[in-house]
Write a structure and sequence with these properties.
Layout: H1 2-28, H2 33-48, H3 53-59, E1 62-87, E2 90-117, H4 120-128, E3 132-133, E4 141-142, H5 151-154, E5 160-166, E6 169-170, E7 180-184
Parallel strand pairs: 4-5
Antiparallel strand pairs: 1-2, 2-5, 2-7, 3-7, 5-6
Amino acid sequence: MKTMHIIKRVFPLLCMVFVLMFCMETCSYAVSAKDINVGVSESLRTLKGIKGGDDVIAKSKGLLVFPGVFKGAAGVGAEYGEGVLRINDRTVDYYSTAAASIGVQLGGSKRSVIIAFMTSDALKNFQKSNGWKIGADATVAVITLGAGTQISSAVANKPIVAFVFDEKGLMFDLSLNGAKVTKIKR
């Protein structure tokens, strides 16, 4: 009985230590601007490989691309990634994204996130913000595609859309709410 009580008190603490170690590890080995841009180009190639992806890239006013967002969790989870804002196929600024979560979760993953600003107003609001939180500062439609669907029909009339990929391709039923995006120097 006493052992179970100790485990219940120590396990959450160990989970928090694991998450903090993961975050410090990720932040202490910040990726160079060159490496980020190589990853961004690869992520954009992945989007172009989906029917309608070229159209989204051409019509967007700006693309916020995070080629590697790493997530680790043991009860408490954290994720972090670095990327760029591209306007007219030119890197304008560098950004980081970070989020935390609590719940039944264990493991780690890596994914790529592309956020397309489809209107000038959406892009301007993002650029003017000082720390942009998805879900609080802006609603972002995470695109999920069923069989035979093409991207262009899925993004119609949405000011901000997001695509999330893992190594296998477009991921389904994900939420980006709560992720904070902050400008960084590279």
